[in-house]
User: Fold Centromere protein N from Esox lucius.
Amino acid sequence: MDQSMKRTLQRLIRRIPFQLLKTTLSKWAHILEEDLLLLDFTQPKCLFTENLLSLCEGKGTTVKHITELEMIYIIENPNQVMWRAFQLLDAREDAPSIELTQFKEQFKAHLTELNSHVSIKIKKHTDEAVWIRIAWGDNFTKPNHLKPTYAVHHLQTPYVFVTGLTVKHKPLLNQALVLTTRYGSIKDASLSGRNLVAIRDLLMRQYQQVFPTKHPKPLQEKNHVPTNPNIEKEQIENTENRLQMACEAFGDGTLPQLQKAVYQLETKFRDNSNRTLTGSDEPFRGVVEFTSTNLLESLRHAVSSGIASTPVTPLLSSITQKGRNYFVVTDKGV
Assistant:
């Protein structure tokens, strides 16, 4: 192995948590079972890494082998990076007919035609997702395996999930995807997060939804002390009404574990006490961000428990209805 390959493997091993190393290496076809017995997984990680590098050097490890190990780790642990969703638009009639072999051949052909200095590896996962790893180079440099781009695409769907993509390489990847999948264009879906499964399920509606059974209406506020003996029944009905609205807005059962929703405000400032800002022709700009370990579950609970008002504002319900977690709010709406 040359120094570049050693550095790439060394960084990869450092990146993998020590408790996952043995499991990850056991799935690497380049390392045999008897090779694993030669490694001491109780050693400090720095010493373990040096011993692994020595073992790999003796086995003639290549860049191809190292990228295989990296793909194993990323596919098994996708939540270690930030993912952004994209949506393919204007499908041609033959778009649904593309299968894996065609996709591999055509994607590699299209991307290398746009940039011949790339290294591409494509692998199909057990959940039918096609994983693409791209190391980018140019006319003066070899492909940089330290900073690859990953793209995940489920064939016969218009969605692609990408991480590690720079502004420079975005047009190249987009064009190769559009040509290969037989669509007309591709756009940012305004959805991102670390939990790949969550943003996939939200975008593809792969979770239990509840559809409206009636037109939602605001609950009646009671300012007086109720004396009606049927008040308990009314309270039960109000509780059920809130629960129904919460489920209609955010779904029922287990929800995708989305961690964040961002609202970029570009609205007119309205406050009679501040004439300077109120009279300005420029919109008032700001950013509001909601975060939680499970944002959709938190919002559903806030509505069903009465903490948030009903009916649910479109600012919140749009997360599930539009499959997005990034919105630009103007005076015309979201």
